[in-house]
Design a protein that fits this description.
single chain
Protein backbone atom coordinates (compact mmCIF):
# COMPACT_ATOMS: atom_id res chain seq x y z
CA UNK A 1 0.00 0.00 0.00
CA UNK A 2 0.99 3.60 -0.52
CA UNK A 3 0.93 5.34 2.87
CA UNK A 4 1.42 9.06 3.49
CA UNK A 5 2.88 9.73 6.93
CA UNK A 6 2.06 13.13 8.41
CA UNK A 7 3.85 14.98 11.26
CA UNK A 8 7.00 12.98 10.56
CA UNK A 9 10.02 13.34 12.81
CA UNK A 10 13.37 11.63 12.16
CA UNK A 11 12.55 8.89 14.67
CA UNK A 12 9.21 8.15 12.93
CA UNK A 13 11.04 7.71 9.64
CA UNK A 14 13.69 5.46 11.19
CA UNK A 15 11.39 3.12 13.11
CA UNK A 16 8.68 2.82 10.43
CA UNK A 17 11.25 2.08 7.73
CA UNK A 18 12.90 -0.50 9.97
CA UNK A 19 9.57 -2.33 10.33
CA UNK A 20 9.06 -2.02 6.58
CA UNK A 21 12.53 -3.33 5.70
CA UNK A 22 11.11 -5.73 3.11
CA UNK A 23 9.53 -2.79 1.27
CA UNK A 24 6.04 -4.28 1.30
CA UNK A 25 4.54 -0.79 1.65
CA UNK A 26 5.53 2.51 0.07
CA UNK A 27 5.82 5.41 2.49
CA UNK A 28 5.75 9.11 1.71
CA UNK A 29 7.03 11.00 4.76
CA UNK A 30 5.81 14.57 5.30
CA UNK A 31 6.87 17.03 7.99
CA UNK A 32 3.52 18.80 7.71
CA UNK A 33 0.78 18.25 10.23
CA UNK A 34 -2.42 16.81 8.77
CA UNK A 35 -5.13 19.45 8.38
CA UNK A 36 -7.72 20.47 5.84
CA UNK A 37 -5.04 22.51 4.08
CA UNK A 38 -2.52 19.65 3.86
CA UNK A 39 -4.84 16.67 3.37
CA UNK A 40 -4.50 16.93 -0.41
CA UNK A 41 -0.84 15.96 -0.05
CA UNK A 42 -2.10 12.40 0.48
CA UNK A 43 -3.35 12.22 -3.14
CA UNK A 44 -2.78 8.75 -4.55
CA UNK A 45 -2.36 7.13 -1.12
CA UNK A 46 -4.62 4.37 0.12
CA UNK A 47 -3.74 5.14 3.73
CA UNK A 48 -2.47 7.95 5.91
CA UNK A 49 -0.49 7.54 9.12
CA UNK A 50 -1.32 10.23 11.68
CA UNK A 51 -0.23 11.25 15.16
CA UNK A 52 -1.84 12.85 18.24
CA UNK A 53 -1.96 16.45 17.02
CA UNK A 54 -3.04 15.75 13.44
CA UNK A 55 -6.55 16.95 12.59
CA UNK A 56 -9.01 14.30 11.45
CA UNK A 57 -12.29 16.16 11.58
CA UNK A 58 -15.08 15.72 9.01
CA UNK A 59 -13.58 18.28 6.63
CA UNK A 60 -10.16 16.61 6.62
CA UNK A 61 -11.66 13.13 6.22
CA UNK A 62 -13.78 14.27 3.25
CA UNK A 63 -10.66 15.57 1.49
CA UNK A 64 -8.78 12.35 2.25
CA UNK A 65 -11.61 10.22 0.88
CA UNK A 66 -11.72 12.23 -2.35
CA UNK A 67 -7.99 11.64 -2.71
CA UNK A 68 -8.47 7.86 -2.43
CA UNK A 69 -7.62 7.23 1.23
CA UNK A 70 -9.42 4.26 2.79
CA UNK A 71 -7.45 3.83 6.03
CA UNK A 72 -6.30 6.15 8.80
CA UNK A 73 -3.55 4.38 10.75
CA UNK A 74 -2.98 6.25 13.99
CA UNK A 75 0.46 5.69 15.48
CA UNK A 76 -0.85 6.40 18.96
CA UNK A 77 -3.41 5.00 21.40
CA UNK A 78 -5.72 8.02 21.60
CA UNK A 79 -8.29 8.74 18.93
CA UNK A 80 -10.07 11.82 20.32
CA UNK A 81 -8.81 13.82 17.31
CA UNK A 82 -10.83 11.66 14.88
CA UNK A 83 -14.45 12.30 13.88
CA UNK A 84 -15.45 8.62 13.98
CA UNK A 85 -19.05 9.10 12.76
CA UNK A 86 -17.71 10.99 9.73
CA UNK A 87 -15.13 8.28 9.09
CA UNK A 88 -17.83 5.60 9.12
CA UNK A 89 -20.07 7.66 6.84
CA UNK A 90 -17.22 8.08 4.36
CA UNK A 91 -16.15 4.43 4.48
CA UNK A 92 -12.74 5.17 6.01
CA UNK A 93 -11.38 2.62 8.48
CA UNK A 94 -9.56 3.95 11.53
CA UNK A 95 -6.90 1.96 13.38
CA UNK A 96 -4.82 2.74 16.43
CA UNK A 97 -1.98 1.38 18.57
CA UNK A 98 -3.81 0.37 21.76
CA UNK A 99 -0.65 -0.59 23.63
CA UNK A 100 3.07 -0.33 23.00
CA UNK A 101 5.10 0.01 26.19
CA UNK A 102 3.03 0.84 29.26
CA UNK A 103 6.35 0.83 31.13
CA UNK A 104 7.52 3.85 29.12
CA UNK A 105 4.67 6.10 30.25
CA UNK A 106 4.54 4.66 33.77
CA UNK A 107 8.27 5.13 34.34
CA UNK A 108 8.11 8.69 33.01
CA UNK A 109 5.26 9.34 35.42
CA UNK A 110 7.48 8.26 38.31
CA UNK A 111 10.34 10.34 36.94
CA UNK A 112 8.09 13.41 37.03
CA UNK A 113 6.89 12.65 40.56
CA UNK A 114 10.43 12.16 41.88
CA UNK A 115 11.89 15.14 40.04
CA UNK A 116 9.12 17.50 41.14
CA UNK A 117 9.10 16.27 44.73
CA UNK A 118 12.88 16.41 45.19
CA UNK A 119 13.28 19.53 42.99
CA UNK A 120 15.79 17.75 40.76
CA UNK A 121 15.23 20.20 37.89
CA UNK A 122 15.96 23.17 40.15
CA UNK A 123 18.93 21.49 41.83
CA UNK A 124 20.45 20.68 38.43
CA UNK A 125 20.41 24.34 37.40
CA UNK A 126 21.71 25.51 40.77
CA UNK A 127 24.71 23.21 40.78
CA UNK A 128 25.68 24.23 37.24
CA UNK A 129 25.84 27.81 38.54
CA UNK A 130 27.94 26.80 41.55
CA UNK A 131 25.05 27.12 44.01
CA UNK A 132 25.04 24.18 46.42
CA UNK A 133 22.56 25.62 48.95
CA UNK A 134 19.71 23.28 49.90
CA UNK A 135 17.16 25.90 50.91
CA UNK A 136 14.06 25.57 48.75
CA UNK A 137 14.80 21.97 47.73
CA UNK A 138 12.98 20.22 50.58
CA UNK A 139 10.93 17.21 49.50
CA UNK A 140 9.06 14.39 51.24
CA UNK A 141 9.36 10.61 51.50
CA UNK A 142 7.14 8.76 49.05
CA UNK A 143 7.08 5.87 51.51
CA UNK A 144 3.81 5.89 53.42
CA UNK A 145 2.16 8.56 51.25
CA UNK A 146 -1.25 8.06 49.66
CA UNK A 147 -1.28 8.11 45.88
CA UNK A 148 -4.50 8.21 43.88
CA UNK A 149 -4.37 6.53 40.47
CA UNK A 150 -7.16 7.61 38.12
CA UNK A 151 -7.40 4.90 35.47
CA UNK A 152 -5.98 1.43 36.10
CA UNK A 153 -5.50 0.07 32.60
CA UNK A 154 -2.11 -1.19 31.44
CA UNK A 155 -0.27 2.05 32.31
CA UNK A 156 -2.07 2.61 35.61
CA UNK A 157 -1.30 -0.98 36.59
CA UNK A 158 2.44 -0.50 36.01
CA UNK A 159 2.33 2.77 37.96
CA UNK A 160 0.68 0.87 40.82
CA UNK A 161 3.38 -1.82 40.73
CA UNK A 162 6.14 0.77 40.95
CA UNK A 163 4.49 2.83 43.68
CA UNK A 164 3.79 -0.31 45.70
CA UNK A 165 7.55 -0.85 45.70
CA UNK A 166 8.00 2.59 47.21
CA UNK A 167 5.69 1.64 50.05
CA UNK A 168 2.85 3.95 49.07
CA UNK A 169 -0.78 3.53 50.09
CA UNK A 170 -2.65 3.21 46.82
CA UNK A 171 -6.16 4.36 45.97
CA UNK A 172 -7.72 4.05 42.52
CA UNK A 173 -10.75 5.16 40.59
CA UNK A 174 -11.89 3.39 37.43
CA UNK A 175 -15.14 2.11 35.96
CA UNK A 176 -13.53 -1.34 35.84
CA UNK A 177 -11.47 -2.92 38.60
CA UNK A 178 -8.07 -4.38 37.81
CA UNK A 179 -7.45 -7.62 39.73
CA UNK A 180 -3.68 -7.20 39.49
CA UNK A 181 -3.96 -3.80 41.12
CA UNK A 182 -6.17 -5.19 43.86
CA UNK A 183 -3.59 -7.92 44.50
CA UNK A 184 -1.04 -5.15 45.09
CA UNK A 185 -3.25 -3.65 47.79
CA UNK A 186 -4.90 -0.97 45.65
CA UNK A 187 -8.25 0.09 47.07
CA UNK A 188 -10.94 1.31 44.67
CA UNK A 189 -12.82 4.36 45.92
CA UNK A 190 -15.02 7.15 44.61
CA UNK A 191 -13.34 10.02 42.81
CA UNK A 192 -14.25 12.29 45.70
CA UNK A 193 -12.57 10.05 48.26
CA UNK A 194 -9.47 9.68 46.08
CA UNK A 195 -9.09 13.45 45.73
CA UNK A 196 -9.64 14.11 49.42
CA UNK A 197 -7.12 11.54 50.68
CA UNK A 198 -4.29 11.53 48.13
CA UNK A 199 -0.99 13.33 48.58
CA UNK A 200 -0.39 12.69 44.86
CA UNK A 201 -3.03 12.29 42.14
CA UNK A 202 -1.82 10.78 38.84
CA UNK A 203 -4.04 10.58 35.75
CA UNK A 204 -4.00 7.59 33.39
CA UNK A 205 -7.38 7.64 31.66
CA UNK A 206 -8.41 8.27 28.03
CA UNK A 207 -9.97 11.55 26.92
CA UNK A 208 -13.72 11.09 26.51
CA UNK A 209 -16.69 13.43 26.97
CA UNK A 210 -16.91 12.13 30.55
CA UNK A 211 -13.25 12.77 31.39
CA UNK A 212 -12.83 16.15 29.64
CA UNK A 213 -11.95 18.67 32.39
CA UNK A 214 -12.43 15.98 35.01
CA UNK A 215 -9.98 17.96 37.13
CA UNK A 216 -11.83 21.26 37.31
CA UNK A 217 -12.19 23.91 39.98
CA UNK A 218 -14.53 21.73 42.05
CA UNK A 219 -12.17 18.74 41.88
CA UNK A 220 -9.19 20.89 42.83
CA UNK A 221 -11.11 22.25 45.80
CA UNK A 222 -11.68 18.66 46.97
CA UNK A 223 -8.00 17.77 46.78
CA UNK A 224 -5.88 17.61 49.90
CA UNK A 225 -4.22 21.05 50.38
CA UNK A 226 -0.67 20.95 49.04
CA UNK A 227 -1.20 17.79 46.98
CA UNK A 228 0.66 17.08 43.74
CA UNK A 229 -1.17 16.57 40.43
CA UNK A 230 0.44 14.57 37.60
CA UNK A 231 -0.93 14.18 34.07
CA UNK A 232 0.69 11.94 31.46
CA UNK A 233 -2.56 10.95 29.71
CA UNK A 234 -4.36 13.70 27.74
CA UNK A 235 -4.12 17.44 28.30
CA UNK A 236 -7.83 18.19 28.26
CA UNK A 237 -8.50 15.96 31.26
CA UNK A 238 -7.54 18.97 33.38
CA UNK A 239 -8.98 22.47 33.22
CA UNK A 240 -5.71 24.39 32.95
CA UNK A 241 -7.02 27.87 33.95
CA UNK A 242 -8.55 26.27 37.07
CA UNK A 243 -5.20 24.62 37.84
CA UNK A 244 -3.46 27.97 37.44
CA UNK A 245 -5.79 29.50 40.02
CA UNK A 246 -5.12 26.59 42.41
CA UNK A 247 -1.37 27.10 41.99
CA UNK A 248 -1.65 30.84 42.61
CA UNK A 249 -3.70 30.33 45.77
CA UNK A 250 -1.31 27.66 47.05
CA UNK A 251 -4.09 25.07 47.18
CA UNK A 252 -2.19 22.86 44.71
CA UNK A 253 1.27 21.96 45.95
CA UNK A 254 2.80 20.87 42.66
CA UNK A 255 1.96 20.13 39.04
CA UNK A 256 3.75 17.78 36.64
CA UNK A 257 2.57 17.62 33.03
CA UNK A 258 3.65 15.70 29.97
CA UNK A 259 0.53 16.77 28.06
CA UNK A 260 -1.31 20.06 27.61
CA UNK A 261 -4.75 20.84 26.24
CA UNK A 262 -3.44 23.31 23.63
CA UNK A 263 -0.20 21.45 22.92
CA UNK A 264 -0.77 21.16 19.17
CA UNK A 265 0.89 24.54 18.56
CA UNK A 266 3.78 23.83 20.94
CA UNK A 267 4.88 20.26 21.40
CA UNK A 268 7.19 18.30 19.09
CA UNK A 269 8.67 21.53 17.68
CA UNK A 270 11.78 23.59 18.50
CA UNK A 271 10.39 27.00 19.50
CA UNK A 272 13.45 28.09 21.46
CA UNK A 273 14.05 31.10 19.21
CA UNK A 274 10.44 32.33 19.40
CA UNK A 275 8.17 33.83 22.01
CA UNK A 276 5.53 31.46 23.35
CA UNK A 277 2.20 33.00 22.38
CA UNK A 278 0.09 30.80 24.64
CA UNK A 279 -0.33 32.99 27.73
CA UNK A 280 -1.75 30.19 29.88
CA UNK A 281 1.18 27.90 29.13
CA UNK A 282 3.69 30.72 29.60
CA UNK A 283 2.15 31.49 33.00
CA UNK A 284 2.46 27.82 34.01
CA UNK A 285 6.20 27.95 33.39
CA UNK A 286 6.64 30.79 35.89
CA UNK A 287 5.77 28.59 38.87
CA UNK A 288 8.70 26.93 40.66
CA UNK A 289 6.47 23.98 41.60
CA UNK A 290 5.50 23.16 38.00
CA UNK A 291 7.42 20.68 35.85
CA UNK A 292 6.51 20.22 32.17
CA UNK A 293 7.86 17.82 29.57
CA UNK A 294 6.77 17.96 25.94
CA UNK A 295 4.74 14.75 25.46
CA UNK A 296 7.79 12.54 25.76
CA UNK A 297 6.48 9.88 28.15
CA UNK A 298 6.10 7.40 25.26
CA UNK A 299 9.56 8.14 23.89
CA UNK A 300 11.65 5.00 24.45
CA UNK A 301 13.29 2.60 22.02
CA UNK A 302 10.93 -0.17 23.06
CA UNK A 303 7.81 1.96 22.69
CA UNK A 304 8.79 3.26 19.25
CA UNK A 305 9.49 -0.28 18.04
CA UNK A 306 6.08 -1.30 19.38
CA UNK A 307 4.28 1.65 17.78
CA UNK A 308 5.88 1.06 14.38
CA UNK A 309 5.26 -2.69 14.54
CA UNK A 310 1.58 -2.36 15.42
CA UNK A 311 1.07 0.38 12.84
CA UNK A 312 2.51 -1.86 10.12
CA UNK A 313 0.43 -4.79 11.38
CA UNK A 314 -2.72 -2.66 11.07
CA UNK A 315 -1.81 -1.71 7.49
CA UNK A 316 -0.94 -5.33 6.62
CA UNK A 317 -4.26 -6.62 7.95
CA UNK A 318 -6.24 -3.92 6.14
CA UNK A 319 -4.53 -4.71 2.86
CA UNK A 320 -5.05 -8.45 3.36
CA UNK A 321 -8.50 -8.61 4.97
CA UNK A 322 -10.00 -5.15 4.54
CA UNK A 323 -9.98 -4.72 8.32
CA UNK A 324 -7.10 -3.47 10.52
CA UNK A 325 -6.13 -5.47 13.59
CA UNK A 326 -6.95 -2.69 16.02
CA UNK A 327 -9.90 -0.90 14.44
CA UNK A 328 -11.58 1.99 16.21
CA UNK A 329 -15.35 2.01 15.78
CA UNK A 330 -17.87 4.76 16.36
CA UNK A 331 -19.36 2.62 19.13
CA UNK A 332 -16.28 3.41 21.27
CA UNK A 333 -17.70 6.90 21.70
CA UNK A 334 -20.75 5.57 23.53
Amino acid sequence: MHVTVFSTKPYDHRFLEAENADGRHRFTFLDARLSEGTARLAAGSEAVCAFVNDELNAGVLEVLRREGVRLVALRCAGFNNVDLPAARRLGISVARVPAYSPHAVAEHTLALILALNRKIHRAYNRVREGNFALEGLLGFDLHGKTVGIVGTGKIGEVVARILAGFGCRLLAHDAYRNEVCESLGVRYVTMEELLEQSHIVTLHCPLTPDTRHMIDAAALERMRPGAMLVNTSRGAIIDTPAVLRALKSGRLGGLALDVYEEEADLFFEDLSARAIKDDVFARLLTFPNVLVTGHQAFFTEEALHGIAGTTLANIDAFERDGQPLHAVSVERLA
